[in-house]
Amino acid sequence: MTTLLIIIAVVVVLGFIVAGIYNNLVKLRNNRENAFANIDVQLKQRHDLIPQLVATVKGYATHERELLERVTQARAAAMNATGINDKIQAENALSSALAGLKVSLEAYPDLKANQNFLQLQQEVSDIENKLAATRRFFNSATKELNNAVQTFPSNILAGMFGFHKEPMFEVPREERAAIEKAPEIKF
User: Fold this and answer.
1) CA-CA-CA-CA dihedral for 135, 141, 143, 146, to nearest 10
2) What is the pTM of this model?
């Protein structure tokens, strides 16, 4: 009788431990999804501003059509991406296209003085800053989930219930070289 009660107590305690670990994994996955939902809000604003920015630039940069088309196509791909991993890849392509647009605009001093363009550029810059903050939060939530998925004993349950390591929202390789390069200062 005592042995049976001990076995039942051990099973109940193990059940609570398993439930606690599972609930923690679910909470971490939901935090990651919530973090990406915050990124989605910023991306929507970014996607809404890009056509305005492109239209303003088109008036000045008629021979830069290929670059503008690349930005427009990258925006369309980003808006049509489904799933977190696809969106991360599409948004990285859009960020790369926007970076190319910023470099190209240096050749248009009149455009850089245009009030509409300056306002749009400020709004895009503001959204990019907000995106950077929400990406940091997303990566932090992803790190917490990945730690739980990869550490003992939760890794055992993670495998059983289909939890797996998730990718971070990282800077694309093309942009990494530009980021790591020291800025040039010209007078």
Assistant:
1) -130
2) 0.69
